[in-house]
Amino acid sequence: MKNREQRDLFPGALEMMILRTLRRQPLHGYALAQHIKRTSNDLLQIEEGSLYPALQRLLKDKLVKAEWGISSTNRRVRIYKLTPAGAKHLAHEVSRFEKMLKGVARVLAPGES
Amino acid sequence: MNWLKQLFSRRRLYDDLSEEIREHLEEKIEELVASGMARKDAAAIARREFGNVTLTEENSREIWRWPSIESFIADIRYALRTLRKSAAFTVTAIVTLSLGIGANTAIFMLLDAIRLRSLPVQNPQELAEVRITDAGHQGMGINQQYGELTRPLWQRIRDQQQAFSGVFAWSVNQRYVGRGSEMRHFKGLWVTGDFFQVLGVRPFRGRLLMHEDEGACPPTRAVVGYSYWQSELGGATFPLRSDLLWTTSWSRSSA
Fold first, then answer.
1. Positions in chain B short of pLDDT 50
2. Which H helix or E strand runs over B108?
3. Taking a C-beta distance cutoff of 8 angstroms, is the pair B184, B176 a contact?
4. DSSP output for chain A
5. pLDDT at B230
6. pLDDT tens digits for B208-244?
7. Is A50 within 8 Å of chain B by CB?
8. Which residue numbers in chain A have pLDDT < 50?
9. Paired residues of B154 in beta bridges
10. How many residue pairs bridge chain A and chain B with CB atoms within 8 Å of each other?
């Protein structure tokens, strides 16, 4: 259960970040984890492992697809790629997230009530 | 057959996942070693940052799974594994259970035979057996083949008893029927004429023996049980073939 709490800031957040990262370029699991950590300035203390259940969920929903390949460091890796359905899902999720964020920000904004 | 295909593809899926996670950890270790860390420390850090590998794999697999059936099977596997590990406990449990079940079955079979299952006659609870209570001496004859009573004794009982609404006598009749290689053993009873009336048995076909049939020698009439009729006489229709040959022990020796 601890693992589950750490995985998500809110339900679907990790999936959203994965999809967003994969929209830039196809990546394998390790690179994906590093990228998310780095771009969030290490703010997100996610366990790298929690990436994999999220990736499996996305695979199952056909939002990403995976293929074995060779990485730039000459490793056998499974590279994940965004599918068209994934791109659509991402756009939808991002707009939903932005709406929610706006709402939260408005509530938290000082001096208005 | 889709689920079957899914079942097989799932194994590959699980293997892929394990390999992927292994590669992930190795890549991380390599990177940390390249930055100047001792391999041992690198491995520890990689594992810590990854989190619980087994749990991760488990959580990832769960996504593909029909939750109930597969985790049920996994539970059974786990139970079997655990049982195998503690053999002494397993043996004790199995022996205890089998003894318990065995004892219960034995007692039930006994009860079933003596209390629950009654004879297929009209009033089985009203039946009683008349015998001579002569402790240590079984039967009237030289050996047990002669049974409990002699014919005169039986006739006296039949004519003078007042305790029963009806009485009959029987003796076990294990003889052969048929000729030569066709000869078959059968289990039968010699019975007195009132046998079926007293028991209140009704025939499936034809008629049963009656009082008037008594006394014919050699016996000319017989009643066969349903299963014997089916298996040995092929469920033949009436009248039965008349050459049914009774081979008694004395007629064999005189032949």
1. 135, 141, 145, 242-243, 245-255
2. helix B87-111
3. yes
4. -HHHHHH-SSTTHHHHHHHHHHHH--EEHHHHHHHHHHHTTT-----GGGHHHHHHHHHHTTSEEEEEEE-TTS-EEEEEEE-HHHHHHHHHHHHHHHHHHHHHHHHH-TT--
5. 83
6. 888 888 876 777 778 888 888 888 777 777 655 544 5
7. yes
8. 1-8
9. none
10. 70
Interface test with B, best of A2, A48, A71, A79 (most B CBs within 10 A): A48
Cβ B51 vs Cβ A49: under 8 Å: yes
* Contact residues, A window 51-110, toward B, CB-based 8 Å cutoff: 52-53, 55-57, 60, 66, 68, 71, 73, 75-78
The pTM of the whole model exceeds 0.90: no
d(CA B18, CA B16): 6
- Measured between CA atoms, the residue of chain A closest to residue B29 is A30
Q: What are phi and psi of B208, to 5 degrees?
A: -95, 175
Taking the CB of residue B85, how many other CB atoms lie within 10 A of it? Answer: 9
What is the rounded distance in angstroms from the CA atom of residue B194 to the CA atom of residue B154? 13
How many residues are recorded in chain B?
A: 255
Nearest Cα residue in chain B from A37: B49
Q: What is the ipTM of this complex?
A: 0.78
**Closest of B39, B74, B82 to residue B57, by C-alpha:** B74
> What tokens does B163 get?
């305790």
Amino acid at B233: L
